[in-house]
Amino acid sequence: MSKSKQQLTFEDRIKIETLLKEDRTLAYIAEKVDKDRSTLTREIRRATTGNPNEKTPTRFLKFMYTAREGQYIVDKHVRRAGRHSSLNSYKTKVLQREIHQRHYTPGAVVARHPKLFSNSTIIYTWINRKKIPNVTYHDLPMQGKRFKRSIVKNMYKSQREKNKKTKLAELFSINDRPDIINNRTEFGHWEMDGVEGRKGGGKSLLITLVERKSRFQVAVKAKSKQATDILAALESVNERYGKYIKSITCDNGHEFINSLVTGFILNKFGSLYIANSYAPYERGTNERTNRNLRAPWYFPKGTSFNKVSQERVDEVTEEINDKPLTHVFSNGQSPMRMFRKYVRELNKKQRLSNAF
Predict the structure, then answer these.
(1) Are residues 121 and 73 in the same domain?
(2) 232 in the Ramachandran plot: left (φ > 0), alpha (ψ -120 to 50) or beta?
(3) Which residue, among 101, 103, 92, 102, has the nearest Cα to 130 in the 3D structure?
(4) Which tens digit of pLDDT belongs to each residue from 78-124?
(5) What angle in degrees, to the nearest 10, is found between the helix axes of 310-321 and 335-355?
(6) Any idea what the Cα angle at residue 302 is, between residues 300 and 305, rounded to 5°?
(7) Same domain for 41 and 101?
(8) 270 in a domain, yes or no?
(9) Pair (127, 254) in one structural domain
(10) Do the Cβ atoms of 227 and 253 come closer than 8 Å?
(11) pTM to 2 decimals?
(12) Structural domain tally of the chain?
């Protein structure tokens, strides 16, 4: 049975968004909207990252998909589709002669050839994008002062990212974390951090999480601080402990505070709280358990995690979790024993609630 025309309508996108929220598979959704699975994959990547060829696995992106954003991007592309470059071979020759040989500025070129060029901005754009062979900003009298605009633009972009990160930190501030978490009276609230390896020894690091009430620790390797690698590590955590995580508190490092990772945490784990800058004591449990990992007989500073297997990491965390706690409340129990106790209590409550 052949698939229908592959262009998605807004109604299709609404159906896709609805089925994704129901956690349906892409194969199932593709059948429901009568499209190829690859069409859905490109649609999700385009709507969430802006790039249909993005390599991020769709399992990390699909929960961020919205029909409105998908339609907006397509409409925006359609509006631009009819704009073809006005640069032809004749104009190219003129620009090569005037700029490369005579060192005219784009403004002077426009003044000399008003019927060919309407403004100098487009000429600067062509030079910047290397559309004119043998013409670079070095051919300009001021060595491409206008090209500094791109640098300034990047500075503004960096500032925008910083502002976005600040807004996220304010939106999910640890200052708004409820007392039930602060006082460790409820099981399922975790702290998260990253333990980096030796500089020059590879980009791998450990993503560490510790449950606040039991002090039970989990550590998962991540290939790098890139969002997709952090997501892969968190997906591994979700598969093993997801149903025991109600909230996560982390610092405001860029590896955690970005749209992909923040969205994943909110969708999969529940609540997110971000500690204040320069306040590691707000995640004191995580800081202490990380020091345990840094012991000389485990992963001291200078360790290259590229050379450490996940199996070895699991062995170390299991050994640490099996050591008795010295806190008065623990009665000498280990994090492992306390964690299992709280898991049994939680499972019992769920069974009773399901019975009714």
Answers:
(1) no
(2) alpha
(3) 92
(4) 555 555 678 888 999 999 999 888 888 888 898 899 888 888 878 88
(5) 90
(6) 85
(7) no
(8) yes
(9) no
(10) no
(11) 0.59
(12) 3
